[in-house]
Write a structure and sequence with these properties.
mainly beta; eight-stranded mixed sheet; about 30% strand; about 300 residues
């Protein structure tokens, strides 16, 4: 992608909110987008069975009990692989990338804040996993190549926890798709983070409209219209999924993962990393000797 043709300014705000950046460009837009708040609905348990939250500790109560909060989302794509955004791991000078033992991947639960020991747990609708390895794209420079793979001990798939299929086709997807996350309930910094998983129907732009709006080659991104619903800060890394597409990888009864929540611009248009553009990279990244972990229940 000719990323040099996009003039980007990364705005960092001192805040406890993890996903703090907006993408701005000194370009005249061909289409106007009105700023709106998120119009998401609370998810039900098992509604988005491939969604995971990547959680960090807010505070320890004692050595066996801590308050954990989601700072990024992700998507299960195999029994031990989670696909997410690379920029989730560059905060604090790549602290969590260098020290993945400090964070956890949680599948099945629709709760943002959880009190838990942090030990691994395997239940039908609640599975906690330590991270074995994080692989960020070697050419990542936000927002370019904003993709990462997280390896964990094997999940146990249930009716509440399973995988999504990564997209493979370089095509326009169904205009109405879905995004999920624990981000703020609105775009304003004062909005509170959602306590439950939110699901929003997302209007997508065609590849042509996306490139035209940005006045650049956006072939490795997907753009949302953001006029009716959108994702918010804290949703980074989460899934953009569609059904009823022309992608040959899609299977009946299973969502197709077409994008990864990446960033926003000043008019609150959201860009997603296009999963199909990285199908070869995803397939090439392997990490051996991951086994099922025998777990006990934490203090949930």
């Amino acid at each position: 992608m000719n990323i040099q043709f996009i003039i980007l300014t990364i705005i960092t705000v001192v805040s406890c909110v993890r996903d703090k950046r907006l993408i701005t460009r000194y370009l005249q837009q061909s289409y106007g987008v009105q700023p709106v708040i998120v119009n998401g609905d609370p998810a039900t348990v098992g509604q988005i069975p491939y969604f995971v939250s990547i959680k960090e500790v807010l505070r320890w109560y004692n050595k066996n009990s801590a308050l954990w909060k989601s700072f990024c989302g992700g998507t299960i794509i195999t029994i031990n692989k989670v696909l997410t955004a690379a920029h989730c791991f560059e905060v604090y000078n790549y602290k969590y990338y260098r020290n993945p033992h400090l964070i956890r991947v949680v599948a099945g639960s629709i709760r943002n804040y959880m009190i838990c020991s942090g030990e691994e747990v395997t239940e039908n609708n609640n599975q906690w996993r330590r991270i074995q390895k994080i692989v960020m794209h070697g050419l990542f420079k936000f927002p370019a190549n904003d993709i990462a793979l997280v390896f964990v001990n094997n999940f146990t798939f249930t009716s509440f926890i399973t995988y999504a299929i990564p997209a493979t086709a370089d095509t326009d997807y169904a205009r109405r798709c879905m995004a999920a996350g624990f981000g703020k309930t609105g775009h304003d910094m004062s909005n509170e983070a959602s306590h439950v998983l939110l699901v929003a129907k997302i209007d997508l732009l065609s590849k042509w409209m996306c490139s035209d709006r940005w006045l650049s080659d956006m072939s490795k991104f997907i753009c949302s219209d953001a006029e009716s619903a959108d994702v918010a800060r804290g949703d980074s890394g989460g899934p953009l999924a569609c059904k009823g597409t022309s992608d040959p990888a899609e299977r009946s009864g299973r969502d197709l993962l077409v994008g990864i929540v990446s960033g926003k611009d000043v008019d609150r248009t959201t860009i997603y990393t296009r999963v199909s553009a990285y199908k070869d990279w995803i397939a090439s990244v392997v990490y051996p000797n991951i086994v099922v972990s025998i777990c006990f229940r934490g203090s949930i």
